[in-house]
Amino acid sequence: MASVKPFTISVPDSSLDRLSQKLSITNFPDQLDESGWDYGAPLADIKRLAEYWQENYDWRKAEAQINELPNYRTPIEVDGFGALDIHFVHQKSPVEGAIPLLFAHGWPGSFLEVQKILPLLTSSTTPSFHVVAPSHPNFGFSSGVTKRGFSLPQYAETCHKLMLKLGYTQYVTQGGDWGCMITRIMSLMYPDNVRATHINMIRGHQPTLFSNPLLYLQHKFSPYNAREKGGVGRNSWFAKEGGGYREEQATKPQTLGYSLSDSPVGLLAWVYEKLHDWTDNYPWTEDEILTWVSIYWHSTAGPAASLRIYYESAKDVQFGRGRTEYYIPKVPLGLSYFPMELTVVPKTWGRTMGPVVFESEKDHGGHFAAHECPEELVGDLRKMFGKGGGAKGVVEGRDGYGVEKGRAKL
């Protein structure tokens, strides 16, 4: 694999100087008296974070910590779009029979969402995993796409070809947000290679009498539990107050892109609002927030490129996000329900999405499960793929158990 090369993130000093200059001349808006989060990111929060970003935040320290991860880049040929340089983290387990797992991030996350679960998944605790976590095209330190039409099938193709290039002809996947949708399309396109998938953003639909008579009866006559009852309010909030960003990004991403690309504070406010609203009271530190935002600011393609997945997926009538919400056969499916996800559905709805072999309901946690609740997410994966789990042994010759050997990266 000569074309797979170690990669070191190194933002030029000139870029950091320009960022500091832009932060110093920010023109902040005013704010109404007694306005709160219902209006959006509060002025005091954004001023505090912007000042910290300029005066105290140390990107070089964050960069060094990220570079401690096993980072690589390699060209991946995507049909109709040419070769794209794909950045990814690849950590192998010392367990010989470890299961290859693709971790797919979403927006406004990045490959860095794997950081907390990486040492847990790749430890000698069984079942163990070899983990691959790419920056999707248009995100992080992967190439941007210069042609229209790069939708979920192309993101799926990129991830699949990366796994094949690393020697993983059979593998499993995990994802939330767009990572959920990308891995679901991978299950549809490559069922012989994707041996099972686990997701933590579940967007199934109410079963009908004609499509799923048994699930329909279960849903009709089974009372909602506490999580499902709480989900009614969460769903209503998101539909009425939380989804405006998606409409803009799915319809006019270029217009929004000017602001996010030119104003670091504009980007900060746009992302920070989601980190606050989409989590379950997660105690974000300034450094965490600014590292997540900085990855977008310093990304290879720029922050505007990350919005285009919304537009392209909305225009894709065959393999857009809507297709991922309905039944996909053949590939075993695992579902972890977190109460502060953006949409919270009953289990009977989730079972309409595919051949479900694992379910777990949590009493805490939100949209960024790998970052908010890493131990719980890894625990679910071990239950799903471990002894007695519904996806035990789905990858031929790699069941997560075996002889331990010296730790390797690639």
Provide the fold topology.
Elements: E1 5-6, H1 13-24, H2 43-55, H3 59-67, E2 71-78, E3 82-91, E4 99-104, H4 118-121, E5 129-134, H5 152-165, E6 171-175, H6 178-189, E7 194-199, H7 213-221, H8 226-242, H9 244-251, H10 253-262, H11 264-277, H12 286-297, H13 308-315, E8 333-337, H14 347-350, E9 356-361, H15 369-372, H16 374-385
Parallel strand pairs: 4-5, 4-6, 6-7, 7-8, 8-9
Antiparallel strand pairs: 1-2, 2-3, 3-5
Helix pairs in contact: 1-2, 5-6, 9-13, 10-11, 11-12
Describe the structure.
The structure is a single chain. This protein is α/β, with parallel strands linked by helices and 410 residues long. Helices cover 40% and strands 13% of the residues. Strand 6 (171-175), helix 6 and strand 7 form a beta-alpha-beta unit. The radius of gyration is 21 Å and the shape is globular. The model has no long low-confidence stretch (mean pLDDT 96).
Provide the structure class: alpha/beta
**Rg result:** 21 Å
General form: globular
Characterize the largest beta sheet: strand count, sense, and whether it forms a barrel: 9 strands, mixed
Order of helices and strands: EHHHEEEHEHEHEHHHHHHHEHEHH
Strand content: 5-15%
Approximately how much helix is present in the residues? 25-40%
Number of helices: 16
The total count of strands amounts to: 9
Straight-line distance between termini:
10 Å
**Average pLDDT over all residues:** 96
- The side-by-side strand order for the widest beta sheet comes to 1-2-3-5-4-6-7-8-9
